[in-house]
Amino acid sequence: MKDSMKGNERLEKFLKLQNKNVSFENISKEIGISSATLRRFLNKMGYKSEDGKYVLTSEIEKKEIAKTNKKYDKTSSNKKSTKKVTKKEMQIVFENLEDKPQKTNSSKKSKVSKAKPKKDRKINITQEDLDKICEVYDWYLEVKDYKSMKPRKRYNKKDVIIEDKELKDVKGTSIKVDKNTWEEFERLCSNSEFSKQQILTQALKDFMKEYKHLL
């Protein structure tokens, strides 16, 4: 198959045919290149396969960000509004703490009456200290739910695990496999940094480990 199209022309034609729900294999024939070459071209142009269709990587990221923002908005709407405590209210709380009498056990009243009276210990809080406490409390109300509402970081998917990255002795062979399975295998290889030979070799090793009793 010969391809005389330029990169932009090839991409534009691919997108038009894809929007018409033409199969990937038929699109590659229409453009005049192999399916594997077309996948590599799309990956190079920044397109990734999603739900059977190739989409710009930036569009995929936009969808993920939109989902994250939607969850964030839903979480925020469910949170109850928090009222800030004024300096005056804080001052009243501390005054009540100072004036609150201590509770005594009825069985120990006689012992307490004989004991020497203790001097009242009051906490001396200046206006400056009260201002700082109010600032710290206001800050706490603002950030206490920040961690739960913070969008989760997105991590890249892990690649295939390859034991032997260098294939010293390679043997060529011809095999026939299921068409859909091979197309999915090619799609996997196009999204990996390893070659088909490396991935296929690792797959056969894993298969033989699973059924080593037949060796």
Description of the molecule:
It is built from ten helices and two strands. The model has no long low-confidence stretch (mean pLDDT 76). The longest helix is centred in the N-terminal third of the chain and has 22 residues. With 215 residues, it is mainly alpha-helical. α1 runs antiparallel to α2. The protein has a two-stranded antiparallel ribbon.
Q: Rg to the nearest angstrom?
A: 35 Å
Shape: elongated
Helix and strand run: HHHEEHHHHHHH
Structural class per helix/strand content? mainly alpha
The total strand number stands at 2
Q: Could you tell me the mean pLDDT?
A: 76
In DSSP terms (H or I, runs of 4 or more residues), the helix count works out at 10
Biggest beta-sheet profile: 2 strands, antiparallel
Sheet-strand content, in percent, reads under 5%
- The assembly state of the depicted protein chains is single chain
Question: Level of helix content?
Answer: 55-70%
Strand order of the largest sheet: 1-2
How far the N terminus sits from the C terminus, by CA atoms, comes to: 42 Å
Provide the low-confidence segments as ranges. none
